[in-house]
């Protein structure tokens, strides 16, 4: 069936199939990002016990609670607390900032594919339409038969490529903006949690030094 379709429609059909497969890929990427964002949101929420321990008890208790943090935020908090307690050399704030950047960057992994598809698919569809129109006129030249009825069939088939390209582009832009919106909100939550722990670490360090 695919071979017959390719033989009947030509290159524009190949491009349409490519764009449809791209559409499926975009949905898959969006779903994968949704799972990653959901996992990260749960990780951020699981830091509250550690922050509470640092606020009401000590950094040692906070480090114990940090073992129970789920997901990527565990590495961020452990990096800061280990340095604050002297278990690892370094500055807690810089260590947490470095780990936080890596976590935030992971939220936007593969989203460039969504943006690229949104930008390129209309041109792929337009290229398919141009090729289809050229094939239609070439067929008219070979058969010697013209007229609106003959031309309209080839052109209508060729315009399908443009329609599919625009639809896939809209899908890519919509999914990209959606993922970016959730990722940006979650990035702010991550920064808030890290800043809160960093403030408590600084407070304990100041208190211990004064004591």
Give a brief description.
The protein has 211 residues and is mostly helical. It has helices at residues 2-9, 11-45, 48-56, 59-66, 73-84, 92-107, 111-143, 148-210.
Question: What would you note in describing this structure?
Answer:
This protein is mainly α and 211 residues long. It has a domain of 146 residues. The chain is built from 8 helices and no strands. The protein starts with a helix and ends with a helix. The model has no long low-confidence stretch (mean pLDDT 87).
Helix and strand content put the structural class at: mainly alpha
Mean of pLDDT: 87
**What is the first-to-last residue Cα distance?**
81 Å
What integer value in Å does the Rg equal? 28 Å
Q: How would you describe the shape?
A: rod-shaped
List the helices and strands and how they pair.
Elements: H1 2-9, H2 11-45, H3 48-56, H4 59-66, H5 73-84, H6 92-107, H7 111-143, H8 148-210
Helix pairs in contact: 2-7, 2-8, 3-4, 3-8, 4-5, 5-6, 5-8, 6-8, 7-8
What attributes does this structure have?
single chain, 211 residues, mainly alpha, 87% helix
């Amino acid at each position: 069936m695919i071979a017959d379709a390719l033989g009947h429609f030509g290159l524009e059909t190949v491009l349409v199939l490519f764009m449809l497969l791209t559409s499926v890929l975009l949905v898959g990427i969006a779903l994968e990002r949704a799972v990653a964002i959901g996992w990260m949101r749960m990780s951020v929420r699981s830091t509250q016990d550690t922050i509470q321990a640092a606020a009401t008890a000590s950094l040692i208790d906070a480090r114990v609670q940090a073992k129970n943090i789920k997901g990527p935020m565990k590495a961020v908090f452990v990096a800061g607390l280990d340095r604050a307690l002297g278990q690892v050399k370094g500055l807690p704030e810089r260590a947490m900032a470095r780990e936080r950047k890596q976590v935030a960057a992971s939220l936007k992994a593969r989203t460039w594919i969504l943006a690229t598809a949104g930008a390129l698919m209309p041109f792929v569809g337009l290229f398919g339409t141009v090729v289809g129109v050229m094939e239609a006129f070439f067929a008219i030249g070979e058969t010697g038969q013209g007229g609106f009825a003959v031309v309209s069939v080839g052109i209508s088939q060729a315009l399908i490529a443009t329609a599919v390209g625009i639809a896939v582009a809209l899908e890519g832009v919509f999914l990209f903006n959606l993922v970016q919106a959730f990722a940006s909100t979650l990035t702010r939550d991550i920064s808030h949690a890290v800043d809160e722990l960093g403030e408590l670490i600084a407070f304990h360090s100041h208190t211990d030094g004064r004591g």
